[in-house]
Amino acid sequence: MIEEFYEVLRKRRDVRGEFTGEPIPEATLTRILEAAHAAPSVGLTQPWDFVLVDDHATREKFAKHVHEEREVFAGRLGEDRASTFANIKIEGILEASLGIVVTYDPARGAPDVLGRHAIADAGLYSVCLAIQNLWLAATAEGLGVGWVSFYREPFLSELLGIPDGVRPVAWLCAGPVTRLETVPDLERHGWRSRRPLSAAIHHGRFTPRDPGAASAADV
């Protein structure tokens, strides 16, 4: 049982190009949303909501916006980086079975949110925990999930009628996939390599490291 849990952690991928478009069984969708809704939250506020988007016209509008933002980002890159980025698919909005937009409502439970008085972003962290729960549950169910981040929040809020003050934190592409890649897309395409755990561990105090120095796990 424990090994199966860690296997799900290792299998999870940010999926862009492997969606089949087949529908998600209703019972399966309910289970992954229940997993998300079971996430811990600051002050038990559960500040998230889930907007399920299956309308093709809405997804086309969002995909067009994301493409425009991709061009904005690409225009800021140097020649070598732009060449690498050109081969990277950043979303599966139209290929996925469903879009799941996860929002954050900072007013839920306010003003007396237990645990948020000193860290204003604690509510946002709670939403990210719900997203991670959803992602891992989907992986365990054999589904793929991709987090789209190339968008402007005001555009998505207007597109989906999200009220003022509520933030759209993530558009998640979700659905059955042909496979889950064993190596993350950005690593496979040479955008960035993962750093070893040893480079992220500090003992007692944070110790700045030379970013160019190799750790024992690198060699």
TrEMBL record:
It comes from the Bacteria. The keyword Phosphoprotein does not apply. GO terms for molecular function: oxidoreductase activity. The keyword Flavoprotein applies. Gene3D superfamilies: NADH Oxidase. Keywords: Flavoprotein, FMN, Oxidoreductase. InterPro entries: BluB, Nitroreductase, Nitroreductase-like, Nitroreductase/BluB. Residues 9-175 form the Nitroreductase domain. PANTHER family: IODOTYROSINE DEIODINASE 1 (PTHR23026:SF90), NADPH NITROREDUCTASE (PTHR23026). This is Cob(II)yrinic acid a,c-diamide reductase.
